[in-house]
Specification:
Blueprint lengths: L15 H5 L1 H6 L6 H9 L15 H5 L9 H9 L5 H13 L19
Bound molecules: iron/sulfur cluster (2 copies).
C-alpha cells in the first residue's frame, strides 16, 4: 500500500539517523527508522511501530541539522491516545505494584526476560 506521506519540513533526508539506528539495522524497513517514523507521524498515522525504538538517542546525535527524530514524543502521543501493547500495559502495572517492569522478584532474583515491551 502506498501512503501519501507528508514530508518532515526540518529533515534533509540524508539518512544518517537511519543508518545509525540499531532498530533499522535489524528491521531494514523505512518505517522502523527514525526518519521513517517521523514521516508516518507527519502523515497523521499512529502505529505500534513507534514502540520499536530503544530510546538510545543515537539518531539525535548524528543528525546534521540537530533534528530530534527519536521515539519519545511519538510514544507519548500513542500513550495519550490510549494505543499500547499488552506488554506495555503489563510493564506499567508491574512498575506501579512492584516498583520494576518485570513483576514480583525475590531478593537477588534476576528477571528471566530482560525486555519489557
Ligand atoms: S532513539 Fe530510537 S529511533 Fe533513534 S537511533 Fe535510537 S532506536 Fe533508533
Ligand atoms: S539525520 Fe536528520 S536530516 Fe538526516 S534523515 Fe535523519 S532526521 Fe533527517
Amino acid at each position: 500500500m502506498l501512503i501519501d506521506l507528508t514530508e518532515n519540513p526540518d529533515c534533509t533526508e540524508c539518512g544518517l539517523c537511519r543508518e545509525a539506528c540499531p532498530v533499522f539495522q535489524i528491521q531494514r524497513q523505512e518505517e522502523y527508522s527514525p526518519r521513517g517514523r517521523v514521516m508516518l507521524d507527519c502523515a497523521g498515522l499512529q502505529t505500534l511501530v513507534f514502540y520499536q525504538c530503544t530510546l538510545c538517542r543515537t539518531c539525535r546525535i548524528v543528525c546534521p541539522i540537530g533534528h530530534d527524530p527519536n521515539g519519545e514524543t511519538l510514544r507519548s502521543e500513542l500513550i495519550n491516545a490510549g494505543i499500547e501493547t499488552s506488554a506495555n500495559q503489563t510493564m506499567i502495572i508491574n512498575i506501579r505494584l512492584y516498583g520494576n517492569p518485570f513483576g514480583p522478584l525475590a531478593d537477588g532474583e534476576l528477571p528471566k526476560v530482560l525486555t519489557c515491551c
